[in-house]
């Protein structure tokens, strides 16, 4: 084997939910597989302070890893502000290609391989100009990857809206997808976002291979289908599929204490439910009120990361940091804070999630089921309440509740109708204090162990990354 170091350049679209796993994979490739990695995160000017903090924490220390921040192109003249997040991300990434190209031209030595997240596939053109292989990193799971890649075929097979279908949507070799669970861009086939999404799906099939943030034991059926099902393989044009996960933020026990952790220190073991909807999730005024009442009625302890409610979009703060939390508590029921002062802790807009999930007092996670949050919960051994809001979260929530049985879910998704206080209270009590919670805890602890094994030397994801590196060498 040559002594030259393989040099990978990784591109991430904006948003902590994308930048975080790209940086974490970069870190893994640099530290465990001795690759030289340059990460190009595309950053919006009004992005969350958490992104800046994250970038700083990675830049300072890691050998073999460098970061070149790319300012996102201004697309305000091209897209109206109310355009959906997926359209925003795709157009923004397309318009940022000249800046990405310029940044890559300054990297020395020249990269050997390009890896991009699913919003970066327009940059394949840069890889082609350099004649280097290009891989897509799906920061979600294999089941989603299968639906995503297969969507252009479904587009030809299915007439009418997906959400109105009477039958489940068949994905060859995989568990079918319920019309209730389809991902956001598939909700309305007449919307511009659907066209953008199909184009994005085609971009994935034009890559030289697919890396997925999952592991073999978690999704054997979907992974087998992606690799061996004739129809899916022909859609993917026989591309290799590598499992690299769980790539997730790790708990660092020596982080400075803050008032949340100090409050947790005083609570009984496994008694607290942590409520948070990721970096982007927002809920309506009415749902905020029902959720608050539900938490209060449950009489369980809680930490709730509260954001200002939004009228229309459940991904209201994905590309923009939450507006000021000034006046936020006005959305909570009158007297809520005073009545729950003994059992609850309300955090405005952002909390140290991984530290909270790893605290011994936490017994459950009320989550929007973003894939990073899901992995953080599983690897902390914490069962969940599934509360999907946008993107592919309904599929994740169904997988967690119905297949892996490590989450409970409301009867109807909160995106369809407001979930009432009694149902919220029932789910919270069942999770933290009921039999159902105990059973889920046992199952999630098993998943946690499997996840740890996958990443160990000679674990399935470790081996898969070695294979990816070997394949890269053979292509350059
Ligand atoms: N996060 C956090 N504190 C918060 C909200 C979110 O640290 O108050 C982190 C969380 O730990 C996760 C990421 O932001 O790593 C959110 O990613 P996810 O895929 O779960 O959801 P998204 O924000 O992409 O919808």
For the biggest sheet, the summary is: 8 strands, parallel
Helix percentage: 40-55%
CATH architecture annotation of the largest domain: 3-Layer(aba) Sandwich
Number of strands: 14
Oligomeric form: single chain
CATH domain class of the largest domain? Alpha Beta
As residue ranges, the low-confidence spans are none
The name of the CATH topology of the largest domain is Rossmann fold
* CATH H-level superfamily title of the largest domain: Glycogen Phosphorylase B
Distance between the termini: 13 Å
Number of domains: 2
Q: Helices and strands: which structural class?
A: alpha/beta
Average of the residue pLDDT scores? 93
H/I helix tally: 18
| Shape verdict | globular
* Small ligands present: uridine-5'-diphosphate
Proportion of residues in extended strands: 5-15%
Cα gyration radius (Å): 22 Å
Keywords: Glycosyltransferase, Transferase
Enzyme class: transferase
Protein name: Glycosyltransferase
Family: Belongs to the UDP-glycosyltransferase family.
């Amino acid at each position: 084997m040559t002594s030259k170091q393989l040099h990978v350049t990784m591109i991430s679209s904006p948003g902590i939910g994308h930048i975080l796993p790209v940086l974490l994979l970069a870190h893994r490739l640099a530290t465990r597989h001795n690759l030289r990695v340059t990460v190009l995160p595309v950053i919006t000017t009004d992005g969350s302070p958490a992104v800046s903090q994250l970038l700083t924490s990675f830049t300072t220390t890691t050998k073999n890893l460098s970061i070149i921040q790319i300012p996102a192109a201004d697309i305000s003249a091209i897209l109206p502000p109310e355009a959906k997040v997926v359209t925003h991300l795709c157009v923004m990434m397309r318009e940022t290609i000249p800046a990405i190209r310029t940044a890559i031209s300054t990297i020395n030595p020249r990269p050997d391989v390009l890896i991009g997240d699913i919003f970066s596939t327009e940059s394949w053109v840069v890889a082609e100009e350099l004649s280097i292989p290009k891989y897509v990193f799906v920061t979600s799971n294999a089941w989603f990857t299968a639906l995503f890649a297969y969507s252009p075929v479904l587009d030809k097979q299915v007439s009418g809206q997906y959400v109105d279908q009477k039958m489940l949507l068949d994905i060859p070799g995989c568990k079918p997808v319920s019309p209730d669970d389809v991902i956001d861009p598939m909700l309305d086939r007449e919307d511009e976002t659907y066209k953008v999404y199909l184009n994005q799906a085609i971009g994935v099939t034009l890559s030289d291979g697919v890396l997925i943030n999952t592991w073999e034991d978690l999704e054997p059926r979907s992974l087998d289908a992606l690799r061996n099902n004739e129809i899916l393989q022909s859609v993917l044009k026989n591309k290799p599929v590598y499992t690299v996960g769980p790539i997730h933020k790790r708990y660092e026990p020596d982080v400075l204490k803050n008032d949340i952790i100090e409050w947790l220190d005083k609570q009984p073991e496994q008694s607290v439910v942590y409520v948070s909807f990721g970096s982007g999730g927002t809920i309506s005024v009415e749902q905020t009120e029902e959720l608050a009442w539900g938490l209060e009625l449950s009489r369980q302890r809680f930490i709730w990361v509260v954001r200002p409610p939004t009228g229309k979009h459940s991904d209201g703060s994905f590309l923009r940091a939450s507006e000021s939390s000034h006046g936020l508590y006005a959305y909570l029921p009158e007297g809520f804070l005073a009545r729950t002062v003994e059992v609850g802790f309300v955090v405005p807009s952002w909390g140290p999630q991984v530290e909270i999930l790893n605290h011994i007092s936490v017994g459950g996670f009320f989550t929007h089921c973003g894939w990073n949050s899901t992995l953080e919960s599983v690897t902390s051994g914490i069962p969940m309440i599934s509360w999907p809001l946008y993107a592919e979260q309904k599929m994740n929530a169904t997988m967690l509740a119905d297949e892996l049985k490590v989450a409970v879910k409301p009867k109807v998704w909160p995106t369809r109708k407001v979930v009432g206080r009694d149902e919220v209270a029932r789910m919270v009590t069942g999770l933290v204090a009921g039999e159902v919670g105990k059973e889920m805890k046992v199952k999630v602890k098993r998943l946690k162990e499997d996840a740890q094994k996958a990443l160990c030397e000679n674990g399935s994801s470790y081996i898969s990354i070695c294979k990816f590196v070997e394949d890269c060498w053979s292509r350059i």
